[in-house]
Amino acid sequence: MVDFDKLQKEYWNENTNLRPYDHPVVHTFARQRIAFIKELIRNSSIHSCLEVGCGDGFGMYHMQELTYQIFGCDLSLTMLKKNPIKKTHLSQANIYDLPYKDKSIDLVYCWEVLHHIREPIIAVREMKRVSRKIVLIFEPNSFNLPMAIFGLLGPSEIGLLRFSPWYLRRLLSQVGFSDILACTVGCFTPNRTPMWLANLLVKLPFRWPLIGLYNVAIGQIAD
Prior knowledge:
Layout: H1 4-14, H2 24-40, E1 49-52, H3 60-63, E2 70-74, H4 77-81, E3 90-92, E4 105-111, H5 120-130, E5 131-140, H6 145-153, H7 165-174, E6 179-185, H8 195-201, E7 214-220
Parallel strand pairs: 1-2, 1-4, 2-3, 4-5
Antiparallel strand pairs: 5-7, 6-7
């Protein structure tokens, strides 16, 4: 039987994102997403964040806009070495066993990470354990036809075929969240979209019911 987690680990030990954190398309993509996140969490006071699967800082660098106290972990040392965040805030860690104390960080989140692991429910349970207030997840949307084709053609992306808004909602529900919001967003990707097209598409609405490129789910921890 193929070990899905082992194959993913081997791939990400040898590869990074196609574009770095400071590429203008990545910047455009991240700013739009972060504006949306700010709206989602506008009623919560966030003083610390943890990005699970932070990789080369693709999202983490821009998430500093929410708080200067930001931490990240990833299994791939290759990715972590390219991360621009100061190394004291980064850890090499397995997503199934996060090296952080219970309820120690306000917002625990991941950007397109869970489809790269075999058991996302274990990872989400760990994220909830560490979070004091919010767990936030972005994943590719298998209901978007180009994204589904990308998953079929890319060996490292095949796991995205599991992910729908309902699947993300169910993951959060299974680990004990009751206050859950899930929706579908985004109409361009950061790694492959040309700059001229990103400049046009960023002007369109961010929410795209069912057919957006990405699913997002947020779980609030009851006080």
